[in-house]
Design a protein that fits this description.
67% helix; mainly alpha; 4 helices; elongated
């Protein structure tokens, strides 16, 4: 499978939002697409886990009411069919994979 010009442009636009202008010198090809897919899969796993994290408790709230509400919200977040990723997950995963992208861009 070879990426057409529109797909290459879309891939470059996404990677620019993650890695900045250094992406302009990267060749957008199938290997870069596959690596981006891995990045998104890892980010999704992170985002799924973030759904299980309780949100901060407001001062003065009853702990029992807070816990009851948070458990319900956690369940609702895990049931929701979400196509979004937490920004912190994308940032963390992209940082950890940066050298992989640079190596692919350099043909390694």
């Amino acid at each position: 499978m070879s990426l057409d010009n529109i797909e290459q442009n879309n891939l470059k636009t996404f990677l620019e939002s993650v890695y900045g202008s250094q992406v302009n010198s990267w060749l957008m090809n199938d290997d870069m697409f596959d690596l981006t897919y891995v990045l998104l899969q890892k980010s999704k796993r992170c985002s799924d886990i973030m759904d299980l994290v309780p949100r901060p408790m407001s001062p003065g709230k009853s702990a029992a009411k807070y816990l009851t509400k948070e458990i319900k919200n956690i369940i609702l977040r895990t049931l929701k069919d979400r196509k979004q990723h937490y920004k912190s997950c994308v940032a963390t995963v992209s940082w950890s994979m940066k050298m992989d992208f640079i190596n692919k861009a350099n043909g390694l």
